[in-house]
Amino acid sequence: MNAQRHPDDDTTDITDSILEFLSTATGGRQLTVDQDYVSEGLVDSLLALELVTQVEVRFGVEVEVEDLDLDNFRTASRIAAFVRRKRGVPEHADG
Fold this sequence. Notes:
- The protein is an all-alpha fold.
- It has a single domain (about 10-85), classed as ACP-like (Non-ribosomal Peptide Synthetase Peptidyl Carrier Protein, Chain A), CATH 1.10.1200.
- It has three helices and no strands.
């Protein structure tokens, strides 16, 4: 099987892109990949909507109503996992 790899399948690239977006959106804050910016009050409902739109546009995935679980968007690492799942990319390859 010779599947074409999307350039953003790498989790580091996805998380870096999300962190860059969030840093800009939160006034230059430096966030970590596992920092829960939702529980810390750094993301309001408008920014959450912008984040969902950013994920759709930047990573070419469709965020459906059933995907709008806050847990999918709490941290950059969770967003990266969500994007990979939507693209059908395995989280970890064993072996």
